[in-house]
Structure formats: structure tokens, C-alpha cells
Amino acid sequence: MDINQVRYFLNLAETLNFTEAARRSRVSQPSLTRAIQRLEEQLGSPLIYRDGKDSRLTALGRDVQAEFMRIELALRNVREHSESTVLGRRRILDIAVAPTIGPARFTAFFFDVLGQLPSVKINMHQLLSGESADEVLSGKYHACILPGMPRPNPKLNVVPLFRERFLLACAKDHPLAGNDVITTEALATYPYVDRLACEFHSQITEHLMDHDAVMQPRFSAEREDWVQQIVAEGRAICIMPEHSAVVQGLVTRPIQGMSLERELVFVTVSGSGTPREVRRIAQMAARHDWT
Length: 291
What we know:
Blueprint: H1 3-15, H2 18-25, H3 29-43, E1 48-49, E2 56-57, H4 59-87, E3 91-97, H5 107-116, E4 120-126, H6 134-137, E5 143-146, E6 156-171, H7 184-187, E7 193-195, H8 201-210, E8 219-221, H9 224-232, E9 238-241, E10 250-253, E11 261-269, H10 276-287
Parallel strand pairs: 3-4, 3-5, 7-8
Antiparallel strand pairs: 1-2, 5-11, 6-9, 6-10, 6-11
Helix pairs in contact: 1-2, 1-3, 1-4, 2-3
């Protein structure tokens, strides 16, 4: 097995088309086909069902794709590390964060990271809808910050960071802002804006309905900044994680009887193939005082 076979198969697994995979690999189609056939002979089983235009990976093919993606990531890390060492370049780390997680608890941590790792440059991304820890395994991101534990996977290193409650959010001059604790009866008397991106949307709705508070929002949004701006202007109230505010003028209050909370985690790929700098950041995250 050679590195070219890894690259050829990953292109084929992504396109499921020998012609397009050969074009991406910059080889002729017969050359790519022979390389895939040799790989299947070495592994002793087909990797792709060849059924005209309906080609698809076999179960082994899907497993091999996942492992080859890790190999490709490790090779890329080796190249980047070599360039950083020989040419004095900075290592660029791509870290993604879930859209419902606010920056307030993280800015000091990441600038501490930059201070201790002068060769690192960090690019922060927002996780797209449907993305998860799988994007770390695929190599799209070096790490991600999630609003809950991912599915158990021995290939992932998961560092718990801190827990945060779900609270009522309202404008600082809103009538509810003067209360220490908000009853569900009081919630139902004010306009409510719905956070469509909330991971606990169904649990919040269930809690309110159990307490005879049926909220009927006339405005909903996936973007947190839109929701928070509406709330900060006093036009409506919402329920949000206590540290996720990004708009000035918001206050939060606990809701009577509501004990929902989430645990934020820092996720990387486990093992020696992970860049040294990423492993260092994970260690720093585990030691950081998040309070």
C-alpha cells in the first residue's frame, strides 16, 4: 500500500465516479482503476460496488475511508510541521464552535493559548447545520467546541469545560428584570422569540407545557444575534444559555422549576497523529479555570 492509493481512494470515495476521481488525482482513469484493484486485492475484499452509475462504498470501503482520512490528516500535519520548522512558518489551526456558544468564556483562554504558543495562528469557524465531531475526524477542523458530549468514539479526545444553565433573557429595563426568579406564569404574558438553533428546544418546550405555559412565538430565528437583538430592545423574551449573550443590554434570570443545563466540551482527534499544538491546547483547556 502506498500514499497514492490513499489519495486515489479518498477521491473515489468522495465522488463515487472513477472518471472524476482520476481527474482530481491527476492520473488516467486506467491507472486509478488499477490502483484501486490492487488495494482491494491487498485488503482481500471489494471497497466499492460497481453498478453502473449507482456505484457505492461497501461496508469495508466506508471503514477504509475513515481510516484513510486520518492518514491524510496525519500526512498534512507532517507537511505543515515540517514547513513550520524549516521555514519558520506558523501552524494554522482551524477550530469550529457551535453557533449557540457565545465567546465570553473563551476569549481570555484563546489569547492565553496564543501567548504560550507563539508559532500558532487560530482560525475560528462556526459549525454548520448538521456538522458535529465527525468534522474533526474527517480533518476539516483540528478541534471543535460542542454544547454537549458527542457520541462515544475511541478516536476522539473529549475535554469537559464547564456547565451552564438555561435562563430567561430579557432587556435590562424589562418588567421581568426586576425579579430574582421568574415563574412560568409570568413568561406566558410576554411576547416570546424562538431560538431555532437551540439544542434543547424540545426540552424547553416540554417544560413550559408541563407548567401550562404554552408559548406561541410569532418570530423565530436560527441566528443568535437576531434573537438577542430583539430581546435586548425589549420587544420579546427568550430562553438561552447563561453565558451565550453577544448583544449589550441583556439580563438573565432563573426560571422557577427549570433545571436544564448543558456541558460544553473541547473535542480533538486522539492519538499521536494529532498535531502537537492541538494536544497542547487540549491540555490547557483541561487545566483552565473556566469560572
